[in-house]
Amino acid sequence: MLKDKLTQLQNEIASAKHITYLTGAGVSTHSGIPDYRSKGGIYDGVAMPPEQILSDDTLYNAPEQFHDFVMNNMYFPNAKPNLIHNKIAQSCNKNGQLITQNVDGLDKKAGNQHVIEFHGNLYDIFCTKCQKSFTYDEYKSSYIHQQDQGIIRPGIVLYGEAIDQTKLMQSVNAIQNSNLIIICGTSFVVYPFAQLLTYRNPSARVWAINKTPLAQDAGINAIIGDALDVFSQLEF
Fold first, then answer.
1. What CATH code is assigned to 34-75+122-156?
2. Per-residue model confidence as pLDDT tens digits over 111-152
3. What is the pLDDT of residues 31-48, one digit of tens each?
4. In what order do the strands lie in the sheet with 220-224?
5. CATH 3.30.1600.10 in the chain, residues?
6. Which tens digits make up the pLDDT trace of 166-176?
7. What pairs with residue 205 in β-bridges?
8. Which of 20, 26, 38, 131 could form an S-S bond across to 178 if both were Cys, CB 3.0 to 4.6 Å?
9. CATH 3.40.50.1220 domain extents, the chain
10. Active-site annotation holder among 30, 85, 114, 119
11. Coiled-coil stretches, from where to where (predicted)?
12. Model confidence, pTM
């Protein structure tokens, strides 16, 4: 049965005019980056709820605590793109678009020229007071901009902050103009990311490649299994 589904998906990839990929942390786990909520994930064993530790409130009112958490739990500067990143990049550069929840920058490292980083990028680091950019190494050494005492932060969407409207509209446009949508490595429960699917063309085919079934499964063709194994058998 799995072989039949893979053949069907391969045929749809080959005939698709435009493919949109929706990805999450399950893609980057194969690059050694933990996901969020599973055992061993970045929230595992953390006393403070993620909605609190990764909030704009903590960033501004307890910046040292915020800085310690992201540095110790979210940055993996030596991580490299894996086969999934590479194959999605190959597909997107041909006729597709990637909308990712991941903030690790690995899709761009893989050479993907059509990436919307829905929740931002950890390496887009800047001073909240003057907007000056900083490198990872500079941020690692201090979260205070010495020239104006502004708080330095990564350009990721925190709890309490809105999604960038330009990225939101670009994402909606990509979904609307695709005749094939592939969801991979995400539980697909975080909003508004999970809401993007509602904008799809009714005739668009939707596939999910995941270790577990999605909560919203109406009209979705599911391949339950390891995404790395699945993508290793697909050609783009």
1. 3.30.1600.10
2. 999 999 999 999 999 999 999 999 999 999 999 999 999 999
3. 999 876 655 556 666 777
4. 115-117, 96-100, 19-23, 180-184, 205-210, 220-224
5. 34-75+122-156
6. 999 999 999 99
7. 180
8. 20
9. 1-31+82-119+163-236
10. 119
11. none
12. 0.94
Tell me the CATH architecture of domain 1-31+82-119+163-236: 3-Layer(aba) Sandwich (3.40)
Sign of CA dihedral 223, 229, 233, 236: positive
What pLDDT, on the 0 to 100 scale, is given for residue 227?
A: 95
Res. 21 pLDDT band, cuts 50 70 90: very high
